[in-house]
Amino acid sequence: MLICKDCFLDEELQSEVASNANTEGRCEVCGNHGRLIDFLEFHPFFDELLSLFEPSTKSEKTIVDFIQDDWRIFKDRDIANILLNDIISTYAYSFSINTYVDYNLNIQERVAVWDRLKKSIKEDCRFFTNMDVFTQYNYLTPGKSLPIGHKLYRSRITPAGQNKIKCKKMGCPPKELATAGRANPIGIPYLYLSDTAKTTYFEVRALYLDRLSVGTFKTTRELKLVDFIYDVNLFLAYNDGEVSLAETIIKKKIIDAISADLSKPLRRYDSELEYVPTQLICEYCRHIVNADGITFESSLHTGGRNYVLFDENSAQCMRVDLHEITTIDIDK
Ligand SMILES: [Zn+2]
Question: Does 109 reside within a domain?
């Protein structure tokens, strides 16, 4: 079957078609005119990927749902149907394009490590939790560095009738006042920062006409961070061949699950018990991985990135600006 790059949404697959297409004409799948490649070239990759799934009575998703929802590989579901069906019939899979499937039990079992850890630390053993699985598989490694002098931001709501908050008050609270957060345990303050001033407006959940003191911080040394935004490309990972697709998928699913818990906004009615698992992950990153902090996506500002630095002296407040919230997006 001759296909063109427009059949894919995934950029790596698109560029693979663009650089290896050896004929030109009308794509047999999407109908676009362009340079074409035989889909057979991609069979080994998709065969390895689809072999990680099996029929499931508990699932309500098909192979197309998984491939598109988790990995956004094809331009649309119709194209996914045609091309995945080609793989399923060529390699005589035990499921069809309409069968409800799930990742195989080994993958599900491995990914469930985070749920098991959360349950065990909340209900069984707080201070001697076994983290061997995380060490064994190296799920958490310093994957992002910030150079010295990198700017980060932190806002606080300015108390009524007061001028902007001073630089020295923009950092962590003192230990005796440090309440528990998603990252830090009570009494052990960490420095919470964001990539832009705008992300901080959302993070402090500023209201209309609030006056914010916005601190611009600079990192005082190079920082190594564990990155909970794990943007892995399956086709690249497959071509690298360093780890199997199964291992790549397991790592991505575990990092995403931890990341979702890290970025959940704090709520007034939360029990502090809810924060213990992510606090454990941060202590692991700090004391076992020897990272200077972590970074993860802001759930309150799409595309924004948050930073948690374990040592409050690793970034210094350089200036504070006042910012009044004058518009509010009611949809947020
Ligand atoms: Zn096409």
Answer: no
- Rounded to two decimals, the pTM is 0.92
What distance in Å separates the CA atoms of residue 193 and residue 144, rounded to the nearest whole number?
Answer: 15
3-state secondary structure at position 281: helix
Query: Percent of the chain having pLDDT more than 70?
Result: 98
Helix (H, G, I), strand (E, B) or coil at 129: coil
For ligand 1, the distance from its centroid to the CA atom of residue 37, given in whole angstroms, is: 10
- Name which of 89, 65, 59 is nearest 77 in CA terms: 65
CATH number at residue 222: 3.90.175
Distance from residue 20's CA to the centre of ligand 1 (Å): 14
Q: How many domains does the chain have?
A: 2
- Is residue 329 predicted with pLDDT exceeding 70? no
d(CA 151, CA 217): 5
* Structural domain span for residue 42: 2-103
Please write the tens of the pLDDT for every residue from 51-60: 999 999 999 9
Ligand 1 centre to CA of 33 (Å) is: 8
Tell how far CA 163 is from the center of its chain.
Answer: 37
- Three-state secondary-structure class, residue 172: coil
Q: How far is the CA of 8 from the centre of ligand 1 (A)?
A: 8
Return the SS3 of 14: helix
Helix H, strand E, coil C: the string for 222-260 is: CEEEEECCCCCCHHHHHHHCCCCHHHHHHHHHHHHHHHH
Ligand 1 centroid – CA 88 distance (Å): 19
Q: Could you tell me the sign of the dihedral formed by the alpha carbons of 198, 203, 204, 209, in that order?
A: positive
Domain boundary among 84, 103, 122: 103
Angle, alpha carbons 21-25-31 (nearest 5°) = 105
Strands 223-227 and 293-297: parallel
Interval between CA 3 and ligand 1 midpoint (Å) = 5
